[in-house]
């Protein structure tokens, strides 16, 4: 846990011990409407980002993969096809409501044989050292209280040569796009949340959490500090999101 006494919850400062519970409340609230809201908020583009993330992951047949903050199972479904029947994907989330939605969705799609489930805090993973060939986290790292601890845990559970992959909202690069994106995030998203999910505040928090997340270069340095080598990032859609990767050497 961070030595700091307070941390950010969106734009609010809260006691560091309280953030996990506050984040859990947000995702308890939005779990049932999470996928619909993702489609509305990103105009469906989040699906293309996730497909790109999986397709260029380097994950292949027989790999054992941990998907952190996997929520409703989008990434796990894509990776299940890549690892095949001899591989394994552990879909994990700190939030039981989100994990239950993910389990139901995957079972409805007939994806079961190579999927396991775990309620897990990314800062304190209940897995052995060097247990996985890859660790993924998509749109979840910004909600973690102690990101450095989570990165160290990702490094610990990877085997030598294994890869960490992070898909997350990041710092928009072109200034004209940034202005449009800010207007959309802080005006449209809370209103959509109010109308569709009857929860304006949770979606206001999600927009604010994006702005508080470390930008591309800072996150890359944090990965290096956690022990990762060959750290790289690639922007998608002008930096609205970025894919970071690093190798356990």
Short description:
The protein has nine helices and nine strands.
Write structural notes for this entry.
- This protein has a seven-stranded mixed β-sheet, sandwiched between helices. Strands 1-2 form a two-stranded antiparallel sheet.
- The protein has one domain (6-174, 202-247): Vaccinia Virus protein VP39 (Rossmann fold).
- The protein has 249 residues and is of the alpha/beta class.
- The chain is built from nine helices and nine strands.
- It starts with 5 loop residues before the first strand and ends with a strand.
- Helix 3 (45-55) runs parallel beside helix 4.
Which features characterize this protein?
two-stranded antiparallel sheet, seven-stranded mixed beta sheet, globular, alpha/beta, 249 residues, single chain, Rossmann fold
Write the layout of secondary structure elements.
Elements: E1 6-9, E2 12-15, H1 19-30, H2 34-42, H3 45-55, E3 64-68, H4 74-83, E4 88-93, H5 96-108, E5 115-119, E6 132-138, H6 147-157, E7 158-169, H7 175-197, H8 200-212, H9 216-225, E8 229-236, E9 241-247
Parallel strand pairs: 3-4, 3-6, 4-5, 6-7
Antiparallel strand pairs: 1-2, 7-9, 8-9
Helix pairs in contact: 3-4, 7-8
